[in-house]
């Protein structure tokens, strides 16, 4: 499977004036739960989930749902429209779709995703058993959020049973008949029986919401069928640049340092994307790949596709600032609401500036449970 190379520099469009870009112009089922989960909690003007209140630092209100929708769009833009990178087989009589990399001999590559990013140099643990060639029957989406990924997968794979779980009941009332949502905590023991094992498990943007990633991966490993795939899609909460201009973005640099500190004190580290590959290998996954994509923050890239991705990325990252900052800084670092607002204003001012050529790395990390592995007899994982 062709992969991107995050080590090649992105050329800068010196004629770009992205500071004039109107970022606001881009913002535009079965559900099983107890009634008590809708007894939301409110803090600093934002709404938070009631189920396992206080364990998750991000809001779940309409503003956050809009952010998740735009983030879903950005993940697809970066991957060339694909919903997953793991090579999931399809039914022979089922037409391939643009969201299925296994249906094409050329999945998102340097030429069709980031044209200035050449062949991948990310670490890949290449083994045998790369594809079980049996179409999946059950897929689990951990932390499904608004359920957009699960719904699109259900539409693309109509013969597969898709289950999405989340702490918040913010999924739509309607979903395809093969898609169901349940309120559940991925950090608790999973209650699926061995007969309910999954062919593919997907997790996206769980950084900052999981306290014990190795345990989460062990649970995923346990509840996969032999030969099944796990995939984590995460972005780094750390900005970079090819021309070292990010070092001049003092407010952003301070923000990401404090965000890292606060999330660690909270017990759920934020910037985990670069660590997942090694964690998966340690937990026994084979054929582990970490496909990394550069996402410019703003339309400063010379390449037209990267310029468009960067404009969407800019809006998305601007929307990230408040939900990632407010609870952690006020609960953990002792900021008042007003202090947090003033602090975030400085961060946003640098993000909208055209003085810096910032980008963020997005990771699509996927690996396979060995064919010889046995499914555990229960979901109890130490």
Explain this structure to me?
This protein has helices at residues 62-78, 148-156, 213-222, 250-266, 276-282, 304-331, 337-352; strands at residues 30-32, 41-43, 46-48, 138-142, 161-166, 179-183, 198-204, 224-235, 286-296, 359-368. The model is unreliable at 19-36, 104-131 and 376-380 (pLDDT under 50). The chain is 27% helix and 17% strand. The chain starts with 29 loop residues before the first strand and ends in a 14-residue tail after the last strand. It is α/β, with parallel strands linked by helices. The longest helix is centred in the C-terminal third of the chain and has 28 residues, at 304-331. An eight-stranded mixed sheet has the order 1-6-5-4-7-8-10-9. GO terms for molecular function: methyltransferase activity. Residues 95-112, 119-134 have a biased composition (Low complexity). Pfam families: Methyltransf_23. This is Secondary metabolism regulator LAE1.
Which terms would index this structure?
382 residues; alpha/beta; eight-stranded mixed β-sheet; two-stranded antiparallel ribbon; 10 strands; globular
Brief characterization of the structure:
The protein has 382 residues and is α/β, with parallel strands linked by helices.
């Amino acid at each position: 499977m062709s992969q991107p190379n995050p080590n090649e520099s992105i050329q800068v469009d010196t004629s770009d004036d992205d500071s004039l870009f109107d970022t606001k112009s881009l913002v535009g089922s079965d559900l099983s739960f107890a009634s008590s989960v809708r007894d939301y909690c409110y803090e600093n003007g934002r709404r938070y989930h009631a189920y396992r209140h206080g364990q998750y630092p991000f809001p779940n209100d309409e503003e956050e749902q809009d952010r998740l929708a735009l983030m879903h769009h950005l993940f697809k833009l970066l991957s060339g429209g694909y919903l997953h990178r793991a090579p999931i087989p399809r039914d022979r009589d089922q037409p391939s779709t643009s969201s299925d990399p296994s249906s094409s001999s050329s999945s998102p590559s340097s030429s069709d995703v980031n044209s200035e990013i050449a062949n991948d140099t990310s670490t890949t643990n290449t083994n045998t058993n790369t594809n079980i060639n049996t179409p999946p029957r059950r897929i689990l989406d951990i932390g499904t959020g608004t359920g957009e990924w699960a719904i699109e997968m259900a539409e693309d794979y109509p013969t597969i049973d898709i289950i999405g779980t989340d702490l918040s009941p913010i999924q739509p009332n309607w979903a395809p008949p093969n898609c169901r949502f349940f309120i559940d905590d991925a950090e608790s023991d999973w209650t699926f029986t061995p007969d309910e094992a999954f062919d593919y498990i997907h997790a996206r943007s769980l950084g900052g919401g999981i306290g014990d990633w190795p345990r989460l991966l062990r649970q995923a490993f346990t509840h996969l069928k032999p030969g099944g795939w796990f995939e984590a899609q995460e972005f780094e909460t750390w900005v970079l640049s090819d021309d070292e201009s990010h070092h001049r973005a003092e407010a952003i640099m301070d923000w990401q340092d404090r965000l890292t500190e606060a999330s660690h004190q909270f017990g759920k580290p934020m910037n985990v994307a670069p660590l997942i590959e090694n964690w998966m290998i340690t937990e026994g996954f084979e054929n582990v790949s970490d496909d990394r994509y550069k996402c410019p923050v703003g339309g400063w890239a010379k390449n037209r596709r990267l310029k468009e991705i960067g404009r969407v990325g800019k809006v998305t990252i601007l929307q990230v600032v408040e939900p990632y900052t407010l609870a952690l800084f006020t609960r953990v670092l002792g900021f008042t609401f007003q202090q947090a607002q003033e602090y975030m204003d400085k961060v946003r001012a640098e993000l909208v500036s055209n003085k810096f050529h910032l980008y963020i790395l997005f990771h699509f990390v996927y690996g396979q449970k060995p064919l010889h592995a046995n499914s555990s007899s229960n979901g109890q994982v130490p």
